[in-house]
Amino acid sequence: MALLEVRDLDVRFAVRGGDLTALRGISFSLDKGERLGLVGESGAGKSVAAFSILNLIAKPGYIAGGQILFEGRDLAAMSERELRKIRGNRIAMIFQDPMMTLNPVLTIGTQMVEAILAHRKISKKEARAIALDRLQKVQIPSPGKRLDQYPHELSGGMRQRVIIAIALLLDPEIIVADEPTTALDVTIQAEIMDLLLDLCEQENVALMLITHDLGVVSQVTQRMLVMYSGRIIEQGPTREIINDAQHPYTQGLINALPQLGEPGARLFQIPGSMPSLKNVPTGCPFHPRCNFATEQCKHSMPDYVRSGNVDVACYEVANLIEQEKHMQEAES
Amino acid sequence: MTSPLVSIRGLEKRFDLSGSLLEQITFEGGRFRRKKEAVHAINGVDLEVQRGEALCVVGESGCGKSTIARTVMGLLSPSAGEIHYDGQRIDNLERKASLPYRRKMQMIFQNPYASLNPRMTIQQTLEEPIRFHHPDWSPIQVRDKIHEVMHSVGIDPDWGSRFGHEFSGGQRQRIAIARALAVDPEFIVADEPISALDVSIQAQVLNLLMDAQESRGLTYLFITHDLAVVEHFGTRVAVMYLGRVCELADTKTLFATPRHPYTQALLSAIPKLEDDRPNHIRLKGEVPTPVNLPSGCVFHGRCPYANERCRQEVPGLITTDGGNQVACHAVEEGRL
Lengths: 332, 336
Known about the structure:
heterodimer, A: about 325 residues, alpha/beta, Rossmann fold, 8-stranded mixed sheet, B: alpha/beta, 4-stranded antiparallel sheet, 14 strands, globular, EC 7.4.2.9 (chain B), ABC-type dipeptide transporter (chain B), AAA+_ATPase (chain B), ABC_transporter-like_ATP-bd (chain B)
């Protein structure tokens, strides 16, 4: 059984003039110790997906359907009290901006001890020892001193290390990291990503990494999901998708990267931009920007088809697979 | 060699941190002392932008790349040093005398949500610079010009009566580019013009900037932290660290044979699609604050090759056999 299994998750936001559907039929699973990447552009619903795993969707958002099974128990149906035992304890979260996550008026030590005592009945002294140990694990210089410092005394990279230390405090099974390095500089970003990867491997923690950076995903994760307009359009092993993307959107996203283009030549560009949730196109949400769109794409939503180890939601890919099958049958 | 379009000579820029006189005075050891503190954003930068090229300035936050952009545009005045445009010194000009240069030099900012006036329609936004610089133009000429630039950036001229908030991020950046192009500039300073945009939109805007360069013969000073973009877009690259240029080279040369240890670390830190695992040069520590600059080479605290000379003496730019200009003692001495 997978550690975490999300089945047909629908998340909606109740606003004036009707509901907006932020997530439509999201299904994926995460095994113990596995690293999963969640890729998409702004508005694709990746953060909503991350937040809904911890059932952290705030009003007016709500989970309209589906299940989030963590070790077989449905988080979507749990009471707030039960959820609190899981949040921060079994499933930890790392957010994008370390300055927003840390309380500016409490010392690092106070915040870490508080998090431990919320879940475990141990003395403050023991909690402080755990906090110190985790700060050492994230390789912060002079960790003892940091416990008594305030967040503003640390640099951005160091704050993000503290956040990772806090996420590790209670030996979680899963870490959900929402753009953990986006606010950081390139060299610091590389160090933090290294650290996160090493720790997940050492402690056998599952990682769900939300990012818009395909380079990071390809270096860190084993499997990836590509989201577009609230839907997973492609999911499978990271290497396979990066090397041979099936969905036209994923292909476009990869080809739009300047590092793949011939220097000085025009970049591949996907026309238009992601639709807003208020007016999602009918059928496949990508069809207005897709070069392969047919009448069928405009009217009905494609189902997932399997190509290699990758699941893709695209009629064009489905047709290609059909054709291949016919060719093979004809040959034999 | 032809003369450069823009040349930056010995540029320095400090931002005073110490506040008013009363805030500067402290009582220490029985006597009053006056303490002054400043952020040393740029510490002696010489750069030349050749006609028709795209000179990229890269570096991490706090290295002074945006300060260079703003100083060149005259939005900040230099603490020391000179800015020359087409042979004429422009950083000390009177307001009136600087007007013709302001038309020739335009700027594109990072955040298209902040750089468009929310109370102006697109028409008004584009009209303002044209009317300001061409007061003698007839309304028809102005209108034609607006249509022309809107068309060239791929925004339907019929949308002129809409406001900025009705557009997406990518479209807003197109409008910001249209505003810069509206007065037919020769030189455009672009400060992180695509950093706030999504990947697929980044490609659109980058293509637009390259098209505009080709069709209008523009020269760019392009500020960015994204090295992949530089490799694609830049003619030459200047790598900055703590207010100094540590390496300057042709884009191809720099990416093929980076010489400065900082450039090497920076290039290795780009996450690449083909890698299965991160595989980069690890630097010690973090960028020091520009308030108290390290002595000697600004990079010595994090450099794996630093020796006593690096801690004492500031390295100057030297030209290597490969054509890179590098400010590094280790390269000069052949240790690296």
